[in-house]
Amino acid sequence: MADFRTIQAGLDEIAVRKDLRVPMRDGVTLAADAYHGPGDEPRPALVALSPYGKELQALALTTPPQRRPSPMWDGCIEAGDIARVVREGYVHVIGDLRGSGASEGEHIGNYNAGGVPLGQDAYDFIEWVAAQPWCDGSVGMIGISYFGSMQVLAAAERPPSLKAIFVSGGHYDFYETTYHGGVMWFMPRAAREGRGGDSGWAFTDRVRSRMLETYSPGEIEERVAERLRDPDVAAWPNLVHVLNYPENHEAWFDIVMNEVDGEWYEERNPVTLAPNIDVPVYLQIDQGRGWTLDGTIEVFNALKGPKKLDIGPYPPMQSRPFIEEHDKMFRWYDHWIKDIDNGVMDEPAVTVHVEGSRERVTGAQWPPKDVEHRSLYLRPRRALSFEPEPMGPEHAAPDGFYQAPLTVTDKVEMLSWSTAPFGEPAEMIGQGAAHLFAEIDQPDTNFILRLWDEAPGGERQLVTTAYLKASHRELDEERTTEGNPYHPHTRAVPVEPGRIEEYVLRVYPFAATFLPGHRLVVELSNDEPLADEHNALLPPDAFHLPVGRPVTHKIYRDAVHPSRLVLPFTTRKAAGKE
């Protein structure tokens, strides 16, 4: 039975309806808490849904916001500032998805809880909230990351009472969330299992693997054996454990078993569902997490109704409890839910913070300015130049590095190239490409590329990244354009050792101005450094699966093999600049 009480949060008096039971169409009930101001008058509601547990979200009332690298930062406290929501005149409703927290039902796989689309559950949840006497019938949604992805899944189902959504830091293409350029990323494990700065999913004992549900024991045994033949997987203890004991890691097991894109990831892919959304959508994302920025832009471009795109400044990790962007969110909801004419829709659709210049530029689309993709060529003596190398491979010998597996060394080898100091500001906004002519002596490796803005004194900030597993080098020729490559990631094609191949990496979207005296530095490795200026800002598990075999890499950058970066230099002023 629901419990009604009043609490004091600072100067705010908040009415709390604890442990509400919300019925789904199949008879399962979900658990929820509702927070609102004193008095019985109906108010609009903001709904937050995740498997992280509503009790964890209640810490927003008692825990001051933490920024990385604070050890108190917990990546799962993402439902927003409860006291602020109440103060603004909304009901904050925080629910546990089926199979998690205090909710009933089974949780199978990722966005298909108990075989029921999570968007369907969100539809039922929203309509139930709208019908309660403490709600005035109008509903929005709140929360970042998983909570943000749930907003897209919910809006695609078109619940009549959902008036608008505001998504900050969402994850979209689920394959791209878990395999960057085909390279496995460990952060989804942290979010699900409670590792490395995350409490994880509030699992009940009713969580099952969709792979184990779908395939026979014999088929699973064969598939597990195949995955363990990958030396990268076989060299990593956690993955050996996952594959041998899947019942202990159900959701992570499913991810590890599906190393290429396809039906398993496309089912209810938020990017695919975005054209179904007809409510107004505000998308916000900070720089430094290139893969989520890429997905945010994809969703923005797919939306048909009123929409905004707001790209914020570095660093990438917002506070936990999440409090940022609330001013923008309430302005959005005051317009679309409370019918307040505050001019938000009179402003340009796209707003972008440009690192370096610290300016905000606006426009009607992404990128907000016209851009010209220009090449910066890798040259001898670790230089980057707008001029290509005139000598052939017999004179311009390749750069190279040998990387031993991390089972036998802690050292990550790295090549770097840099421009001369810029003489005038160089502004780049958009996505790009890295064309690497490389020879390796193994059937596979990772290419991990990171671009830095280096100041005259040596201080540097990450600008963007690019990842590509060598066996995933195939391009989608129909979608690929200059400076904008796409990889289907639907199969892995081993590399012929000793053969020079052109690998085209997608450079994730970014916005940066290199000021006079600054250099652009690009670093190439096949593993990530264990700690540096950027990684210190991320949770401990936010790294990629290392290569499990020794690999020698030769990077050719001569007249025959023009290895280069293709970057989006702006060519005109945007609609506005602050």
TrEMBL record:
Keyword Hydrolase (UniProt): yes
Domain of life: Bacteria
Keyword Plastid appears in the UniProt entry: no
Pfam family, one: PepX_C
Record-level Gene Ontology MF annotations: hydrolase activity
Domain (Xaa-Pro dipeptidyl-peptidase C-terminal): residue spans on this chain: 330-566
InterPro entries: AB_hydrolase_fold, CocE/Ser_esterase, Galactose-bd-like_sf, Xaa-Pro-like_dom, Xaa-Pro_dipept_C, Xaa-Pro_dipeptidyl-ppase/CocE
NCBIfam families xrefs: CocE_NonD
Protein name as annotated: CocE/NonD family hydrolase
Organism: Actinomadura nitritigenes
